[in-house]
Amino acid sequence: MGGSRVQVNKPHKSRFSSKSSRSIHKVSQKDKNRIAKSDRNVTKGARAARLQRSKMLREQKRAALLKEKRASSGLASPPRVILLFPLSASVNVSSLAEDLLRLLSTECTGVLSSTVASSEYKLRLTVLQAPHGDLLSCMEMAKVADLIAFVASATEGVRCDYIDSFGSQCLSVFRSLGLPSTVVLIRDLPTELKRRNDAKKICTSSLTSEFPEDCKFYPADTKDDLHKFVWLFKEQRLTTPNWRNQRPYLMAQKVDMVQDDSSPGKCTLLLTGYTRARCLSVNQLVHVSGAGDFQLSKIEIIKDPTPLNTRKEHDAMDSDDIQVVEVLHSLAPDPLNLEPLLVENVPDPLAGEQTWPTEAEMAEADRNQKQKKLRKRTLPRGTSEYQAAWIVDDTDEEHSDAKDDGDDDEDDDGMVLDEGESGFPSQEGANNLDFDEDQASLYLRDSDEETENDSMMMEGENLTREQIEDEIKKIKEAHAEDEEFPDEVDTPLDVPARKRFAKHRGVKSFRTSLWDPKESLPPEYARIFAFDNFARTQKHVIAKSLELEQESRDDCAPAGSYARLYIKEVPLDVASKLCVVSRTAPIISCGLLQHESKMSVLHFSIKKHDSYDAPIKAKEEFIFHVGFRQFVARPIFSTDNINSDKHKMERFLHAGRFSIASIYAPISFPPLPLIVLKGAGGASTLTVAAVGSLRSIDPDRIILKKIILTGYPQRVSKLKATVRYMFHNPEDVRWFKPVEVWTKCGRRGRIKEPVGTHGAMKCVFNGGLQQHDTVCMSLYKRSYPKWPEHRFPLLNA
Q1: Nearest to residue 69, comparing CAs of 214, 215, 228, 238?
Q2: pTM of the model
Q3: Which among 787, 783, 733, 729 is positioned nearest to 503, based on CA atoms?
Q4: Total domain count, the chain
Q5: Are the CB atoms for 553 and 545 separated by under 8 Å?
Q6: What's the pLDDT band for 250 if we cut at 50, 70, 90?
Q7: 149 and 210 together in one domain
Q8: Whole domain around residue 747: which residue ranges?
């Protein structure tokens, strides 16, 4: 064909030209492994690290659990403490304790000890019986109990509730302390099987809501019931509150005293028992419940009187005739490592003084003294030279007045005492000026103390019954008035307001205004200690305690050992009281951490107890139970303001809400529970007033006492109003002029000028004022707790 193009077969447009070339671009598996080796190793290494870490954590938990099990149920562990608490007065706890001890003890006759060892059950047990009606003994027993067995009677459900008022009160206190492991033992069940099961179901359903979810209910009438309970109790993993495991403690089984000849009025207190929770160092300070903090002179490790091994039991019985306590070894304190018993800081009275004067200054002072002697002065009749030296001269008064006149601008900003106005009608004459000023200052000091609610009830033996009832009635009326009209104070008629409220100041904004925490501190602040960083110090102290626990030191009595503590320099009367108290309640001695003997300002989150009906007034005397420790304190109450560094003081502890209680007390590191006890009507019996927990230790916490001065509109014209009855003289109006005023209906304003001579004033507001409205002025001053006269309850008894 002419002109035609020859068709040429083109190769197929595929990715590969031939089958053999398809795999040329591919990378072999070997090369792939070589190329991706680094990334895969990173992934594989991270996964291996995670697996190794999880395995290590599992092993640590397993080892900790095994250590805890050996510590609680091993041969070296102390006897478990079980507290039998009756829920009502009709429950017979003594018979149950006897049955339980008979089951575990090998002795069939004779008086049984409260601590027994059973080789059959491989268990050592200490049984405590809570006395019904004795709140303090029940609290002390609950602090050391590993298991609280609440005993209920099945016959109580027919007549009334299973829990009476005292049982309900103690149960709420135990919850505040932190409940350990709990069980309920049911007594007096019917012998017939059907009725027995029905009574048990009724009792269980009635009491389930009062106890934790894991609480078990056991019948406890027959020996078989107790046998089943003991086997389950032996295998049970006991839980205790966390605060109890932070410090070593000892529940004394024997309390003795040895008089110290070197120091009269002192003695050495001997407490014998098992050390628990942690090892106790002989260089540590210890706290004895209700008595105070002391140093140890010696610790003796004694042979265990109730060993679990049968062979050791026979050896102990053979040596019982000798009546000699075998001391395994003795621990003596090291003077270099001994913790000092430092309670208060010793203030230096010359710390704020200036340096020593120069010779020129001393010569000038001598010349001034000679000139004063040559000057004739008019003095009251009978005034000595020493008294005359304290009387201010007229020239000094004129100099100070001239200086005050030059500082008018500063007087407008700050409210200080105006020396030019006396405000007392009896001050007539220049000769009685100094005497009247001293009398006025004394009167102001007394009235200020009354405003701070410092007036305490007198001792019960100095007052008649009618006077005590009148005092209680006044406190209740003040409590009701504080709830209805909080912080409102009447301006006195006989004292100028600028003098009566000289320590108070106005604050522009309670939340944002600055208040120096180091300003005008009371003398008690020179006796206390403060931390630069409390959280860091607490972390360091607890880490040091853990390090002491992990090291096998020669100066420590290990946990679970039977030891005798020699506590030195205990007052004789306190030691004798402890010997008497030990018959009904356990005496607890706990080791203190570093710094825990020093005084500071402690803050507690506190709530009024539901069973306490009387008003709780600030700065009254209470007994604070903080963990194992007890001390007397006079707290002030305040709100917990999280939006500001300033907190408003409360004159009373109101029911149904939490407040912050601030006290002077020895340092304690949280977390710790708090039980506040108060004597009922001056009697020796104590009642629960409030419960709570330790919050922080901070002397710089600013607590402001607020007062409200009130006035009433006399004439209202648009934004202006004439207000009366807030002040009673025009000088007070000028003095408080910089402070803002407000009304109960939400208006805000300022004082413009005084009107007349009776304290009326003209005010300008940001809105129209109603005739029935009330004009208020808020003033603040910083408040502090009261220093207790006696720091510990036994010293006050």
Answers
A1: 238
A2: 0.76
A3: 783
A4: 3
A5: no
A6: very high
A7: yes
A8: 705-782
β 115-118/123-129 pair status: antiparallel
Q: How far apart are CA 259 and CA 569, in angstroms?
A: 10
Same domain, 94 and 217: yes
Count of all residues that appear for the chain in the document: 797
CATH number, domain at 124? Answer: 3.40.50.300
- 589 with 249: CB under 8 angstroms? yes
Q: Both 583 and 727 in a single domain?
A: no
Q: For the beta carbon of residue 213, count every other beta carbon within 10 angstroms.
A: 5
Could you give the CA distance from residue 779 to residue 602 in angstroms, rounded to a whole number? 26
What is d(CA 226, CA 38) in angstroms, rounded to the nearest whole number? 66
Contact 548, 287 (CB under 8 A): no
DSSP letter string, 118-176: ETTTTEEEEEEEPPTT-HHHHHHHHHH-SEEEEEEETTHHHHS-SS-HHHHHHHHHHHH
Q: What is the pLDDT of residue 555?
A: 86
- In contact, 335 and 284? CB cutoff 8 Å: no
**Are 194 and 259 part of one and the same domain?**
no
What percent of the chain is modeled with pLDDT above 70? 75
- In whole angstroms, give the CA distance from residue 20 to residue 186: 90
Claim to verify: residue 738 and residue 772 sit in the same structural domain: yes
> CB-hemisphere CA count at 13 Å for 183?
22
Angle between helices 93-104 and 223-235 (to 10 degrees): 70
698 within domain boundaries: no
Q: What is the mean pLDDT of residues 416-422?
A: 36
The reply to whether 87 and 155 lie within a common domain is: yes
